[in-house]
Specification:
9-stranded mixed β-sheet, Lyase, Ornithine Decarboxylase, Chain A, domain 1, TIM Barrel, 2 domains, alpha/beta
Length: 394
């Protein structure tokens, strides 16, 4: 197993199991701080915006803001969450393909971040509602990437950005509309571990440079896989930004937080059909990534046994897809024994589903001495509080 959790962190999780209901998420703050420091060292002189969608807990955002990171958001709610964590508008980037008029009007009241326009229509709407706003225009580089199709946002058939042939004209249109067109934004996708993907992105931008010339900002997005060494990527990114005359921005998310977090679940039954299962109290509603992306999360038992067996690990939903892992060799458990799903610090708690009225798992962070509550375990009544018990009409 690569990069297993620290032994004292595992011991702390065992102790937390005595007090916290499962499933829950647990984070090792020391590992988080190490990942942040690694990116800050590699990209010294660039602006780093943390992609909130990876893990939006307020206590996390406060820590990252204090460490000097900005915030990259993809919804009005995330922008307001960043403001609640103490960010100022000029420390926030708002991305995403759809920015409805109501959301832009709310930003006019609460504070306008740097906006990433995703289409000509997006640009026109921003100019109409937020005249003079600071804008980056998103480029779709029309490139294949080595990742799951649901994570590939830089392909020419995806719904994101403006194709290279159209980008200069759309950018010029933004200036005609009176917007402060600061630069270019490009994001290939997520969980990219092949250096060739990053090299291809830079080649597209190099070809575009003759038509675009100088920019204030070159935002190369995120997507850094957990196996990527940022120090090997940074020099070429900085060199390209210098050729544009631009400040380099990046937007790591999963790369900073995934390895710091684990999902903790208990085993409540062993079952044999045509396959051998362990049935857990955590499934697709607590950790959606295996179902959505085919993601594989290493599994660590918090118990010992003299015998082992190979299991599929299934959750409590009445859905055949509610399987968190297949063919995992584990010690034979007893009822109530616990497992850790590693690399769950990103898109775990953030993607929790209320499907089947499962409340959100609790989330806790360990600083090496004590646990801090990042999110209390959800309660059932709030799940239906917004549903009228008497007829109601809009």
């Amino acid at each position: 197993m690569s990069n297993p959790p620290a032994a004292d962190f595992v011991d702390a999780v065992r102790d937390l199991l005595k007090r916290a209901p499962t499933p829950f998420y647990a984070y090792d703050l020391r590992r988080l701080e190490g990942r942040v420091a690694r990116y800050q060292e590699a990209f010294r002189g660039a602006r780093i915006f943390y992609a909130i969608k990876a893990n939006p807990r307020l206590r996390l955002l406060e820590r990252l803001r204090s460490a000097g990171l900005g915030a990259e958001t993809v919804s009005l709610g995330e922008v307001l969450r960043a403001y609640a964590a103490g960010y100022m508008p000029d420390q926030v980037v708002l991305n995403g393909p759809v920015k409805p008029p109501a959301a832009l009007r709310e930003l006019a009241r609460s504070g306008v971040p740097v906006l990433v326009a995703d289409s000509p229509a997006d640009l026109e709407r921003i100019a109409r509602i937020l005249p003079g706003a600071e804008v980056l225009l998103r480029l779709n580089p029309d490139l294949p990437v080595d990742t799951h199709p649901h994570l590939a946002t830089g392909r020419g058939d995806s719904q994101f950005g403006v194709l290279p042939g159209d980008w200069p004209g759309v950018f010029a249109r933004g200036r005609e509309l009176g917007l402060e067109m600061r630069g270019l934004h490009l994001h290939l996708g997520s969980d990219l571990n092949n250096p060739a993907d990053f090299a291809a992105r830079l080649e597209v931008l190099e070809r575009l440079r003759a038509r675009v010339r100088f920019l204030a900002v070159l935002d190369l997005g995120g997507g850094f896989g957990l196996e990527m060494d940022p120090a090997k990527l940074a020099p070429e990114m900085f060199a390209l930004a210098r050729r544009f005359g631009a400040e380099l921005w990046i937007e790591p998310g999963r790369a900073l937080v995934a390895d710091a977090g684990v999902l903790v679940a208990r085993v409540w039954a062993e079952k044999q059909t045509r396959r051998r299962y362990l049935l857990l109290d955590a499934g697709m509603t607590a950790l959606l990534r295996p179902l959505l992306y085919g993601a594989r999360h290493p599994v660590v038992p918090l118990y010992a046994s003299e015998r082992t067996a190979v299991y599929d690990l299934a959750g409590p939903a009445c859905e055949s897809g509610d399987v968190l892992a297949r063919e995992v060799e584990l010690p034979v458990p007893r009822e109530g024994d616990a497992l850790l799903f590693l690399r769950a610090g990103a898109y775990g708690g953030a993607m929790h589903l209320n499907y089947l009225d499962h409340p959100p798992p609790g989330e806790y962070a360990w600083d090496g001495a004590r646990w801090e509550v990042w999110r209390r375990p959800g309660r059932l009544p709030p799940l239906w509080e917004d549903e009228p018990d008497q007829p109601e009409y809009p």
